[in-house]
């Protein structure tokens, strides 16, 4: 059974005769202890506070039966690990599609304009979790409502844990797609027509951060932590 916040993605799953429904990862409408296993891939890094990220892990644990396991993947701050570049960095020079990307520079945007529905309570982080992350040598400062986030340059190393990542919508007529091969200024009218740019919020995790968050919950046990192609991964077991 799959779930996603996007109705369009869920519709695609249904067209393929898969069981899927729309929901929020912070509140999954399924019975507690009803799952043998849960998978969360590239989801938790989109939540804007440590409190929300921890709550999402707790919700995964709630769904698991005792002895059940969960696999979590999040984007890593370390895109170069043990002298090896991730696939994300390597594709910068190897993909023709990336030659068409429009550089967005390092413009700054207010977080409050990008993450709707934030409250002062949402901005509060768990003091214990922050201390655990500091012990791991990770800068885990919460993002305040007045913070400004850098816009990441695609296929480059991360300069900040909290940032906006450009997502270029590809499409249109064949003629437009051919024209899109020409590098255009990001703020030009032509570039907006050919390749609309959307900015998605990310919190990229540094080494030990995801594991520390999981270990702060007394209902799970961390079985394994590993690095995989620019992602930090944890396998945990429900106690």
Folded structure, characterized:
This protein has 239 residues and is α+β, with helices and mostly antiparallel strands. 26% of the residues lie in helices and 28% in strands. The chain contains eight helices and twelve strands. It has helices spanning 7-15, 50-63, 87-94, 111-114, 127-135, 174-179, 189-194, 209-215; strands at residues 2-4, 20-22, 35-41, 64-75, 80-81, 84-85, 108-110, 148-150, 162-168, 197-203, 220-228, 231-238. The chain has a four-stranded mixed β-sheet with strand order 3-4-12-11. The chain has a two-stranded parallel ribbon with strand order 1-2. Strands 5-6 form a two-stranded antiparallel ribbon.
Brief account:
The protein is an alpha+beta fold and 239 residues long. The chain contains eight helices and twelve strands.
Architecture blueprint of SSEs:
Layout lengths: L1 E3 L2 H9 L4 E3 L12 E7 L8 H14 E12 L4 E2 L2 E2 L1 H8 L13 E3 H4 L12 H9 L12 E3 L11 E7 L5 H6 L9 H6 L2 E7 L5 H7 L4 E9 L2 E8 L1
